[in-house]
Amino acid sequence: MSYRDDGYSSRRGRQALEAALAIAAGAAIVGGIHAMARQTQTAPRGIPGDAPGYTSRKSMYGDYAVTGRTITINRPRSELYAYWRDFSNLPKFMESVEKVEWEGDVSVWTIQAPGGDVRIRAHITTEKQDEEIAWRSVQGSDIDTEGKVTFRDAPGGRGTEVEAIVAYIPPVGRLGALVAKLFQKEPRVQGRRELKRFKMLMETGEVTTSHNRQAA
Amino acid sequence: MRALTYHGKHDVRVDTVPDPEIINPRDAVIEITSTAICGSDLHLYDGVIPGLLQGDILGHEFMGRVVETGRDSTLQKGQRVVVPFTISCGKCFHCMKQQYSACDNSNPAEKQDLTEPLYGHAMSGLFGYSHLTGGYPGGQAQYVRVPYSDVGPIVIPDGLEDETVLFLSDILPTGWMAAENCDIEEGDTVAVWGCGPVGLFAIQSALIMGAHKVIAIDHYPHRLELARGLGAEVIDYRHTHVLEALMEMTGGIGPDAVIDAVGMESHGLAPDAISDKVKQVVGMGADRGHALREAIMAVRKGGRISMPGVYGGFIDKFPLGAFMEKGLQWRTGQTHVQKYSHDLLRRIEEGQIDTTFLISHRLSLEDAPTGYANFKDNQDEWTKVVLKP
């Protein structure tokens, strides 16, 4: 079974997606996370802006927290897409991700945290060669989340604009405290660091460090 | 190895610390043969730049021999190199435009969090200059790890003494870029505030670039003498009304370009300088800017401001009206060292530029704390300190 542009094959999955989007981005939003990416920021008596939805002054959409970030990388789109699409590469620039493994169509992300690992189980919902990869968590995932990364040619031959957006329900309880430590305290920080490390790795071939010695 | 480390305001010590290693493929490790104390190290020493931790190794002007190379380094063991104080990847948008000090990648991602909220964008990596610029261990040490060693270091032919080329690491290209930012035209007069090393090299550079006249402003007699020795006319601001003098020395027009080679710890006798000093001491304002304000008032209509002096935060009583109404242009920034390295090395080899006149004291690395104290407190006599590890 493969998940492509047409989205989810099961009714339950579709409901989950719709529910997520309705909650995540407001009732006016139609068209999934695509819309969330370019969600209009309607101020009272204002006009819809062209800025990405995640730059909105509100940080929660229903139960969902949304965060996103764009970075320009001086490398071709196809090269960046291919590197990202091989999820086993992701731990090389996502410092909290220990490993990503596949169980059939489901990718299992193991995130190291004090007090125990957190596992996100997700399947790919959209996959457009050299343009976009989107995913949504499935049952059994420790965190209810969806996200996507898009790759667009930057103007003037400046490489590729890579935009990553993630929506998630901040968990509660013990797990919540754990995840909060990882993400919620500075939800944008983790994402922007990871994108910057991706840029370093792709542009320079290494992840920059000021450490003077190998870790003991 | 032995290294000069920061322990607090006006407290630096030479400690024994672990030797650096190769971490990334493009790294090299350099054994330092000569290193200098920079005027901007005094900003760290005085505690006016945030983001230093106890034990941080200082120093961003250094050179030495290559002793280890990573897989993708283009250097070879045994080569002599001068290392730019700016760390640049050579591959990002800014590096490709030769804006090396704006490199996107040289400051580690987690350290970029410190300056992104402060400046709107994260700063690039610099050696030995606080965790705002990466927390890189500096070169006032026996060894240093040099990232992106295929881009930064410039190889020095064996015939040239260390002291003739050491300042390619920072102050010579910084003075050169300061003069370049003046866009000097025929007949131009350039006024330079501050006759420290950068100011002096800016004077030298402006004259090479064809300035008709350079006027240097300071209050240390020996430094003014050095400026005069390079061909500048001089003003001692303790004895002269600077603005009036600059108008009278330029036919009533004002200097065509002005250089603030002083920065955030400006002295001065005017009320704004005293108020700035008080605010900096109590932590209300990071930057003292008397020299900059005076330069903006002095420069002719439609003139250029070049600001190599270092600032870290905010300034008030800024003469914004004068800046707009006179239609001024303003250029500044950390130096794009790698852009100038080869050209300046050639000028040194050809004898056009001499940098050794500046060096007043040579000390062992072990005596570095003495060097800091005197460079700060006896500025007239201690113009430049070179340390030998």
From the structure above, extract its key features.
heterodimer, A: 216 residues, Alpha-D-Glucose-1,6-Bisphosphate, Chain A, domain 4, 8 strands, 27% helix, 28% strand, B: alpha/beta, Quinone Oxidoreductase, Chain A, domain 1, Rossmann fold, 2 domains, 7-stranded mixed β-sheet, 6-stranded parallel β-sheet
Helix and strand topology:
The complex is a heterodimer of chains A (216) and B (389).
Chain A: H1 11-25, H2 33-37, E1 60-61, E2 64-73, H3 77-85, E3 97-103, E4 106-111, E5 118-128, E6 132-137, E7 145-153, E8 160-168, H4 173-184, H5 187-204
Antiparallel strand pairs in A: 1-2, 2-8, 3-4, 4-5, 5-6, 6-7, 7-8
Chain B: E1 2-8, E2 11-16, E3 28-37, H1 39-45, E4 61-69, E5 80-83, H2 93-96, H3 109-119, E6 143-146, E7 154-155, H4 162-165, H5 171-180, E8 189-193, H6 197-208, E9 213-218, H7 221-230, E10 233-236, H8 242-248, E11 257-260, H9 271-282, H10 290-298, E12 304-307, H11 320-325, E13 329-332, H12 337-349, E14 361-364, H13 368-377, E15 385-388
Parallel strand pairs in B: 8-9, 8-11, 9-10, 11-12, 12-13, 14-15
Antiparallel strand pairs in B: 1-2, 3-4, 3-6, 3-15, 4-5, 5-7
Helix pairs in contact in B: 5-6, 5-12
